[in-house]
Amino acid sequence: MSSNVTHHAGKYCTEITPQCPVELTTYGYYPNLSVNSFFIALFGLCLFLQLALGTWRRTWTFLGVVAIGCFGEAVGYIGRVIMHNNPWSGAGFKTQICCLVLAPSFLAAGIYVTLKHLVIYCGPEHSRLKPRLYPWIFIGCDFGSIVLQAIGGGTAAAAGDQGGNKKLLDAGDGLIVAGIAFQVATMCVCGLLVLDYFIRFQKAKKSNALAHSESEYEKNAADPKTNRNLRIFCFAIGAAFLTILIRCIYRLPEMAGGWGNSLMRKETEFLVLDGMMVGIACCDETSPQCQRCLKRQIPCSFLEDAPEGLSATPTNLSIHDTATPRSLDYQPSDPDLPPHALLPPGQSQLMNQTPEGDSAPEPKRFDLLDLELVQFYSTRTYMTMSSRISSHAVWRDTVFAEALRHDFLLHGLMATAALHKATMQAKTSDAYAEYSKVALAHQNAALAGYIPAVNKPNQDNGIALFCLSLFLTIWAFASKRLPEGLHSVKLELNQGDSPGITLPLHSPTADFIEIIMILRGIYAVIRETDTWLQGDIEELLRYPLPGDLPPHPADIAEAFNLLAGVADDPKLMPLLGGEHPAASRDFFLEHLARLRDITRCRSVVEWDGHIFSWFIMAPATFIHSLKRGNPSSLILFAHWAAAFRCMDHHWWAIGWAYSLVVDISALLDPIWTPYLEWPRRQMGLVFGDTAHLDARRVA
Among 510, 535, 560, which residue terminates a domain? Predict the structure, then answer.
């Protein structure tokens, strides 16, 4: 009855009058000003804290959904405050019904985001779902409920002030109920899966049925602080989950009873079962301190205390994620002493004594995976760094000896071995994912020590800096992108007027030019440390003598002669760039001559790495023209890329030559097609159409 009366009154009433009393509004009361204002302040404070903490710790996904939820709740209660002054306010009614219905769904999404990492931390083998499926399934379902509720809220709001169009209002009500019911079902399924996981996890603990790969929980089981933080975190997430579920269950009969039903007209129940429940959930959902683990899929560190975690990280590295597996957290090595992990037990105990006689905590030792990576590097990976047999002993012995003195180089060595092992696995296999994760973790640890040290090279760390610079290049080639964090390492020869890259974003050519800057950075490191690069390490700096490289075969010589014709082609002369045609012509021929000479190394496997010299020794003006996509520079680059195919037998370089030739062919105007014949023929592309090229493009 009240719904019908409210419907008719809603067509004509705009404010409280004797003919339009508050009892005829949808809610039938003046919303409490003080309590609703309190919720505005509460959710506003939660929003501010989430923005501050989420930005500080860079938990963007978690920050996004929870901040939207807090903002929606705050705006919704602003609508209720508006209705306190005028319960017939159409703006207030539409604002509160849309925001307060939708906002809790975003808070639920924040819970689903954390489940994946909690399962990974405690052991994914106990879960019936793969950890990566938790956010995909439940956030997907949550998004579905948001869409239903949003459509319902919009439909109800479109019905007119206080329900002027009853059919439209009822349709919106039905959609809202369907969305909330779907959300309740989703949360119940999620809750059952989490409960099942908890039971299986507890049974495994009691029976000591541990997995073959030790989880982070098992590694930290002896740490009371970590266990306490885990219990607090689980309690907070559980409380947030329970309160949001209570709110959704309350909303079902409230909305299903129709607009203006008896339950909807009781403000106390609403404030307790909706406002208070969501308020508790917002206060419980604090940002995990994992920084970038969501993005990089490295072990979660949200259980660590923030002050200690931050104080352990150098100030200028706070933007980098240095989280690594627990097995990597051993004490920094002393250059004058052998690593603790390699000492006999007696000596290790003696070294742990402080001058006052107090025992210092025993440093962490390598775990089996670390030893596996060291063994793999020492038997396999070192031979893949260079084709020159005379350099293999340097990579195996000299570089490894330096790694034992400098932790950042040791992490870099293990990262390279892990990346090498990953490339030997099927990309869909668990082993590929595991080795990739370990490689990223070691890269993070290596960069954390390398970045501050590279700005202060000295006799002690000069060789280590040079070696890690070479590893950085391997990572960049192998992963087809720069390791995250390298943008802070100032390795370029000239930081002054270098233009930005104007090539298509994430194209193979643009990505490769970024790697070129690392190659040139290595040259900068060599210049800074050359006085200390003495002894066996000098073998890595050797260049071939002119007599070591044979002349080009006839077909390649003919290709370069044809390319030299670009300088005299009247159609292409204007495309050489520059304000002075003669200077541009000389510029082109100069770099063509360098390219013709250096690419002779493609015929000698021992010296195939010399092909990088064309970029390392190139003047900055040529690199700048490449960045700008100058056609004359790109045609030279295409010929270099074709010659670069000689490096395809290296696991970290395979596929680049093909990708570059295909990409440059697409970037250049058809007028350059005759000059692309030799590079395309080297890649087997002469008879391939565009669709065929795209299908074969190396990922």
Answer: 535
Amino acid residing at 551: P
Give residue-wise pLDDT tens across range 40-57.
Answer: 999 899 888 888 888 887
104 and 151 belong to one structural domain: yes
The reply to whether 212 falls in a domain is no
C-beta neighbour count of 675 within 10 angstroms: 20
Q: Can you read off the two tokens belonging to residue 319? A: 């933007």
Q: Are residues 574 and 444 in the same domain?
A: no
Give per-residue burial for 326-360: e unless 16+ CB within 10 Å, then b: bbbebeebeeeeebbbeeeeeebeeebeeeeeeee
**Cα 373 to Cα 510: distance, rounded to the nearest angstrom:** 32
Distance CA 524, CA 492 (A): 7
Q: Is residue 310 part of a domain?
A: no
pTM: 0.47
Residue 469 has pLDDT above 50, yes or no: yes
Is residue 542 left, alpha or beta, with left meaning phi > 0 and alpha meaning psi from -120 to 50?
beta
Domain range spanning residue 387? 315-345+362-501+520-535
Quick one: 229 and 373 in the same domain? no
Domain membership of residue 369 (yes or no) is yes
Residue 278 sits at φ, ψ, to 5 deg, of: -70, -35
Into how many domains does the chain fold?
Answer: 3
Q: How confident is the model at residue 577 (pLDDT cuts 50, 70, 90)?
A: low
Among 340, 341, 366, residue whose Cα is nearest residue 353 = 340
Residue 635: strand, helix, or coil: helix
Whether 493 and 573 map to the same domain: the answer is no
User: How many of the other CB atoms lie within 10 Å of CB of 192?
Assistant: 10
The angle formed by the CA atoms of residues 170, 174 and 180, to the nearest 5 degrees, is 140
Instruction: Annotate 410-466 with DSSP letters as a single string.
Output: HHHHHHHHHHHHHHTS-TTSHHHHHHHHHHHHHHHHHHHHHHHHHTS--TTTHHHHH
Which residues have a Cβ under 8 Å from the Cβ of 552 and sit 6 or more positions away?
Answer: 560, 596, 599, 600, 603
Q: What is the pLDDT of residue 177?
A: 84
Q: Which of 265, 296, 327 is the last residue of a domain?
A: 296
Mean pLDDT along residues 320-343 = 39
pLDDT, residue 546, reads 75
> Average pLDDT, stretch 62-91?
88
Residues 6+ apart with CB under 8 A from 380: 417, 420
Mean of all residue pLDDT scores within the chain? 75
Does residue 460 sit in the same domain as residue 600? no
Note whether 275 and 374 are same-domain residues.
no
Average pLDDT over residues 371-388: 91
Amino acid sitting at position 87 = P
Does the structure show a pLDDT above 90 at 412? yes
Same domain? For 470 and 547 the reply is no
532's tokens: 């200390």
pLDDT at 286: 54
Distance CA 94, CA 347 (A): 74
691 and 617 in a common domain: yes
CATH classification of the domain holding 119: 1.20.1070
Model confidence at 699, in pLDDT bands (50, 70, 90)?
very low
Q: Evaluate whether residue 79 is within a structural domain.
A: yes
Between residues 586 and 506, the one the model is more confident about:
586
Q: What is the pLDDT of residues 597-636, one digit of tens each?
A: 988 888 888 888 888 888 777 887 888 888 888 888 888 9
Structure tokens at 192: 């059952």
